[in-house]
Design brief:
By secondary structure, the chain is of the alpha/beta class. It is built from ten helices and 19 strands. α8 packs across α9. Keywords: Amino-acid biosynthesis, Arginine biosynthesis, ATP-binding, Glutamine amidotransferase, Ligase, Nucleotide-binding, Pyrimidine biosynthesis.
Length: about 350
């Protein structure tokens, strides 16, 4: 069965349908990772997006029970050059086609994914619709141009109620803006007592949980669409150590007076080099974001830039000069991708311990 991708600029790609028969609209983006399609599919940060994978063959090792980053994927579609029909791996439970059908996610294969990627790189991300061959292209283009992008993605993917992952170490409150399971796993592996709370939890409610540290998770969309998070962070700065990842990084920066801006086509992949300014060390990082913090907006804040992207010089990390708070734009938990920057979780634990000791001395 054929399926088409119609973009808001009128471009049409026709290929073979796989996965669900649902028709979905979303922002069309691309990811340059060679592996990790299961984690990409289940990453809440892709909420309402249609993801194009630039690597030509996808699904060859199937889907397993352990590599999900969320229980219910929020992605709106997947585009690949070729989807493997017969996956082969000792952990394989089902094919990528089986998963997409079960989760109601449409897939498109057999199109020129290089052409689509070059189009996005040239013109920026475009809204698109995965649909059947019986639709009127002009009507779809009109629909795509007349409707606004959603701004409630964080609300969609955040947990509705707090939950507890018990541990015997430091208590960390993880604010869920679309948290990947990899973040929780890294905290648990360091014996943390983790409490996950919804995105709109107030500062007072968080303090009532007596946290030793606060994690601001990754998540989808524009950080300015989460004003309650910005207010919450402002009320917590200086009281508890804070570590922000991806969207959490952007929210920490905005709470400190910085500005964000949308990137032309974003950073999405498991192969992005980042330089730590203090040491000059380069980490290869996993990234998934469409917005960045404007460096010149940091001049009037108490934040300093700690990391920069090697490819385009954008801000990849900040630290607060007065309070125990830092953040990175990339994903130290990887999932998928290299674990070069996993040590940042250990840095966070050390920051918690130093903060506790300073309070005892006072």
């Amino acid at each position: 069965m054929k399926r088409q991708l119609i973009l808001e600029d009128g471009t049409v790609f026709v290929g073979k349908a796989f996965g669900s028969e649902n028709e979905k609209v979303g922002e069309v983006v691309f990811n340059t990772g060679m592996t990790g399609y299961q984690e990409i599919l289940s990453d809440p940060s892709y909420c309402a997006q249609i993801v194009t994978l630039t690597y030509p063959l996808v699904g060859n090792y199937g889907i397993n029970r352990d590599d999900f980053e969320s229980i219910e994927p929020a992605i709106h579609g997947l585009i690949v050059k070729e989807a493997a029909i017969h996956p082969s791996n000792w952990r394989c439970e089902e094919s990528i086609d089986d998963l997409l059908k079960a989760k109601g996610i449409p897939g498109l294969e057999g199109i020129d994914t290089r052409k689509l990627t070059r189009l996005i790189r040239k013109h920026g991300t475009l809204r698109g619709k995965l649909c059947g061959m019986d639709v009127n292209v002009e009507d779809v283009v009109k629909q795509l141009n007349s409707t606004e992008e959603p701004n409630d993605q964080v609300k969609r993917v955040s947990t509705k109620d707090p939950y507890h992952c018990p541990g015997r170490g430091h208590r960390v409150v993880l604010v869920d803006y679309g948290a990947k399971h990899g973040i929780i796993q890294n905290l648990i592996s360091r014996d943390c007592d983790v409490i996950v709370v919804p995105y709109n939890t107030t500062a007072d409610e968080i303090l009532r949980l007596y946290p030793d540290g606060i994690m601001l998770s990754n998540g989808p969309g524009n950080p300015v669409d989460v004003p309650e998070a910005i207010e919450m962070i402002q009320n917590l700065l200086g009281k508890v150590p804070i570590f922000g990842i991806c969207l959490g990084h952007q929210l920490l920066a905005l709470a400190s007076g910085a500005r964000s801006a949308k990137l032309t086509f974003g950073h999405r992949g498991s192969n992005h080099p980042v330089r730590e300014l203090e040491t000059g060390k380069i980490d290869i990082t996993s990234q998934n974001h469409g917005y960045t913090i404007e460096e010149d907006s940091l001049e009037d804040t108490r934040l300093i830039v700690t990391h920069k992207a090697v490819n385009d010089g954008t801000v990849e990390g900040v630290a607060h000069l007065d309070y125990p708070a830092f953040s990175v734009q990339y994903h130290p938990e990887a999932s998928p991708g290299p674990e070069d920057s996993n040590h940042l979780f250990t840095k966070f634990i050390k920051l918690i311990e130093e903060h506790k000791q300073s309070r005892v001395r006072v």
